[in-house]
Structures are given as structure tokens and as C-alpha cells.
Amino acid sequence: MFAGPVDFLKGVVAMEGLPPADRVEVCFAGRSNVGKSSLINALTGRKSLARASNTPGRTQEINYFTAGDSHYLVDLPGYGYAEAPVAVVAKWQRLLKSYLGGRQTLRRAFVLIDMRHGIKAVDEEILTLLDRSAVTFEVVLTKADKVKAADHDKIIAQVRAALQKHTAAYPEIVVTSSEKGDGIETLRAIIATMA
Ligand code: GDP
Which residues form the EngB-type G domain (predicted)? Predict the structure, then answer.
């Protein structure tokens, strides 16, 4: 667990709104419905923590959580909403680019991928942006409980192959199930040891 409580700090809509860069931070990205809120809740042991960032109006904000005294957990809006207006998407993409390109204390991005679906075109956009921003990203496969154990190795190999072309990809892939708790402690340890 993180040394100290985890709390929602604020939703950020512009670079000026970012909290002081005085902690190590990691961010979480993933298409909507990938299981991002569930994962953040499981990681922090707070059942409804990330619900705050999933409510309408919050979905285009960068949501900051404080984790103990040392870390920020940063929830990036889910992407791939078919119905989001073009202007909203454009504004969000500008903020995302500025954030990824300019946040000195950002150590790693965790990109959540539904283990049943693998990396899709909509995910490739964020992976390419992370490459360009030189933000190391680590793939977190979600909903592992929905995939037969016998298929895990094959899927991991496919994801690894798809990551070959990405210069910012971290070699490790974390397999998780927020439902069953698989991989949660591993992920927590990865974040906690980051300084
Ligand atoms: P978000 O839109 O990325 O924040 O996704 P949510 O965390 O709200 O999850 C979307 C749906 O997937 C919900 O119905 C969750 O209950 C379900 N879900 C999330 N994580 C898991 C998991 O590890 N296993 C299973 N079986 N379902 C999950």
C-alpha cells in the first residue's frame, strides 16, 4: 500500500491548473470501459475513489489523486468515446499533448488494454503520442479473469509483438484483474518503488 491515504485532489482542464510538480507521478490511460476506474479503486483500496473522475463533466479532465506524501496518481480521461464533439476532442488532445510533453515529474504512463481485445487502432494513437513525448509507458492488461488461463501467454505475446514498433514501450506487461485482485499488488509495488 502507499505510505499514507489516497485522496482525490482535483480535476485539471488546463496546464495552469496542474498541481505543483513536487511528487513522483504516474498516469493511467485507456479507452473508455477498459476498467480504469476499477483498477484505480483496486490499487488504492478505495472502492469508489475513481468514480469521481467518471462522472459526466469530469470525463475530459485530468484527475489528480494524492497517494501518501510521495506520489500523484493521474487519471487521464478515457478515449474512444464515439459521441464526443470534435471541438471537445481537439481541446482535450491539446491538453494531453502539453501534459505528456511538459510534465517533468511524470515517471511512467500505464496504458490499460482489455485483455480480451488487445491493442486496437484507438490505442495506437495514445501509444504514438507517448513515443513522441518520450514518456515511458507500460501496458496493463485488464479483465484477465474474462480470458481463459490457457490463452494468456498467446495474448501477451501478441501484445508484445504489437509493442515492437513503439520506442517508449517498457518491456514488462502487467496482467490484472480488478475483480479477482490479480496483478494489483505487482502494480502497486511498481509505483511505490518509483522515486
Ligand atoms: P472505465 O470506463 O475504464 O473506468 O471502466 P470501469 O472501471 O468503469 O469498468 C467498465 C466495466 O468493466 C464495468 O462493468 C466493470 O465492472 C467491468 N470491469 C472492470 N474491471 C474488471 C475486471 O477486472 N474483471 C471483470 N470481469 N470486469 C471488470
Answer: 22-195
